[in-house]
Amino acid sequence: MKGILRFVAVAALAVAVWAGALVPVQAKEQPEKVLRNWYRMVLELVRHTPTFSPPVASRAFAYLGVTGYEVTASAEGAPLVTLAGQLNGLTAVPGREPGKIYDEGVALNAAMAITAKNFFSHTGPTGQRALAAMTKKMAVDVAKAVPSDVAARSEDYGRKVAEHILAWSAADGGAEIENMGFPREYALIAKPGHWVPTSPIQQQQVPLLPQWGKVRTFAMPDGSTCGLPPPPEYSEDKNSEFYKEADEVYQAVSNLNGEQRAIARFWSDDPMLSPTPPGHWIAIVWQVAAKERADAPRTVEALALLGVTVADAFIGCWDAKFEFDLIRPISYIQKQIDPKWQALLITPPFPEYPSGHSTQSAAAAEVLTHVFGDNYAFSDATHEADGLKPRDFKSFRAAAEEAGISRLYGGIHFRAAIERGLEQGRCIGAYAVKLKTRK
Q1: H helical segments located in 225-275
Q2: Ordered structural domains, the chain, with CATH
Q3: 3-state helix, strand, coil in the chain (%, to 5)
Q4: Which of 30, 83, 223, 306 could form a disulfide with 319 if both were Cys (CB 3.0 to 4.6 A apart)?
Q5: 3-state secondary structure 159-205
Q6: Distance between terminal CA atoms of the chain?
Q7: DSSP state of 391
Q8: pLDDT, tens digit, for every residue of 369-418?
Q9: At what angle do helices 104-119 and 125-143 cross, to 10 degrees?
């Protein structure tokens, strides 16, 4: 049934594109609306492409964000400076012809179309049709009232930037995802306290993307830069710190109130049922950008920095996860406390420590605080169309803390993984914030 619903959702998106139900791209707001239309498409494709686990999605958002940023930064008089020479391995993007006129909407649209097509080359037939329809319609819309020579020059420039970014992406170690990210051969560590499979699905008898911590980072030096101390020492002693943390999860899930359940569901962001955790923060950017009526430079700045930091967050988090290879709460609780206990949410198929939600959310919060300001109150309606009520936050950091604790309410993580994941995320976010984006 879920597969049918996913097919219908993407089909509906394709029909919307074909019917012209996109934000009109006219006048001087054109670049912002080009961005919004393409991100709308990408957020839908993420939730309907099986290979797009959270780490894979974060990588796509990073390269998509940098592509839009570099096209915008290259415009004459733009307030932005290139990220070339600042991001690991990124060399100078192609320059524009001096004295020539370019249309920013056409250039940006061409770059985003090529980048999206590349990252979603493995999406299903319906998604491919939606992408093709979107590409065709947007190319026509952005070129209206633009002289043919300017349109051709602008489209060619957008293509060159996209191809440059894609060539950079191909060598990062994360471009090829086989078997949906599950290794065909993997030796589990058969010692107490280490990760054991939590799903009956055959494919998930090994953990997801065990080498992801070695993928090339963007702003921080490498995946181990923001490393963590070990989690509480594994123990089955009822007086141990480890047992107490497990009992906290057991008691919390067994006695959830309505608000705690709502928090757990709101931040669950399961693959194939949502735009994933990094996509959730991308959606937050768009809500804030709309509220702020942000122009193209400010919007691409937020999207690029956010994409970079959530990608780095998943690399850093995965590096730590496979360093410590810690058992999940459900495995420990069913063996040591209550064999009939069940978590509220489905436990993801990889080690526990630290919490990915915590790491990436704290990193995202540092970036968005940098771009939009401290104590920025906002309402998050990311999942309103899915029947979940919007939630209000007094700041981005407050939202990150709620995202973190949601995993304890869901029965997914111990408290140490949440608190230290937040610490790791703040460390990772600081590297993105240090990037020079403004002249």
Answers
A1: 241-254, 258-266
A2: 2-169 (1.10.606.20), 179-433 (1.10.606.20)
A3: 60, 5, 40
A4: 223
A5: HHHHHHHHHHHCCCCCCCCCHHHCCCCCCCCCCCCECCCCCCCHHHH
A6: 52
A7: E
A8: 999 999 999 999 999 999 999 999 999 999 999 999 999 999 999 999 99
A9: 170
Q: Which of 67, 68, 61, 34 is nearest to 45 (CA)?
A: 61
d(CA 412, CA 400): 16
Structure tokens at 425: 């995320």
Token duo for residue 175: 């471009």
Q: How far is residue 426's CA from residue 216's CA, in Å, rounded to a whole number?
A: 19
Pair 57, 311: CB distance under 8 Å: no
Cα–Cα distance between 72 and 169 in angstroms, integer?
Answer: 19
Bridge pairing between strands 391-393 and 378-380 = antiparallel
Peptide bond just before 354 cis, omega within 30 deg: yes
Other C-beta atoms within 10 Å of 339: how many? Answer: 8
CA distances from 142 to 23, 139, 256 (A): 12, 6, 51
- pTM, entire model: 0.95
